[in-house]
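Lab notes, practical 5.
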Amino acid sequence: MSKKKKYLPITVMAGVFGLLLLASFPPHWFAQSQDPQSGGQQQSPGPQPDVGETVLVPKKSQPAPSQPSTAQPSTPQPESKPEKINPNQIYSLSTTTNLVNVDVMVVDGNGNPLQNLDRKNFQLYDDGVQQSVTNFGTGEAPMTVCLLIEFANRFWPRLVLALRYSYDFLNVIHPKDWVAVVSFDLKPQILTDFTQDRMEVRSGLDQLRMPGFSEVCLYDALAFVIDRMKEVRGRKAILAVVSGIDTFSKLTYDQTLKIVKASDTPIYPISIAEFLEIRSMRNESITQLQAENALKTMASYSGGQAYFPRFEQELPADYQQIAEQLRRQYSLGFVPTNATHDGRYHKLKVDLVDEQGNPLTIFNEKGKKVKYHIISRDGYYAPKS
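Output from the prediction step:
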């Protein structure tokens, strides 16, 4: 009882502080001002993949909204009611061909992408068996990103950070990039469908004023977005501005991991909890440690990367790094030697080798050896016959 009396005033003050911060946002955050990056740009079809397509399909789902084309540049209206998620519905990988696609990023110690690698430098293994890379693509391409934002009436300082972090992402959007905005609390809500207009993305963020519920259903929201990203082609990703905490999802953590592992969409979580956690007067709670581990695991399984900024000044560099990684991926395609349709999970591994098959050594312009890291999805589920 004594602890409750001690922290109640602080909670009330935090809520008032959050309201004052929301009211004091810079005018350009909520203004529909002209943006030179988006004005006068002719829309073009969404980015196409360098190789064939691997699709994540649930047993029962509604058709995902299609991307705008040059003939119809208008943005589809957001769905009025998101479809309900059935925890017993198991997602599996199904393809019209046996081709499996793997997007690979090779980054240095600072997370910057390394270029000029060729097909012969990649060795790909499926459950420990080396595969022949039949399709290979590289080069810079536009990115397709769904911005998933935790916006719940639970802890106002986190809500304020979620808004700030989301608006900062506008600075790395290029005219040919596709961006959608989805917020969630008890359920997900599509604020802006995929668009190449930065001002439409800003308009979606401007709809975030007062949260409706205190529950945070992260797992359901991720499944919702992954299901709608399965038909999206190109260099795609989910940028999740979240705390990592889930309070009321129908899906469990294990079920969500299975959906993440079956998907071909990398997840890039941006934590809104780390900044506040290190400034609090208490040690990290078990709940927050579990949330951090969940974000790292989901990012790793999906082929993405988790970020935990401790200072707001870190965020621009983090976003720039994510954008560079997505635009400069290597696309590998292979037909598994084990073509059995048993629905089993297959582990993937990617290595870099030289012409003699030895581990590849990379040097920078000064002749110094570069430590590199390979980022790709952990595996895939074979289709069921």
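Observations recorded by the TA: The chain has a mean pLDDT of 79. Residues 96-135+330-381 form one domain.
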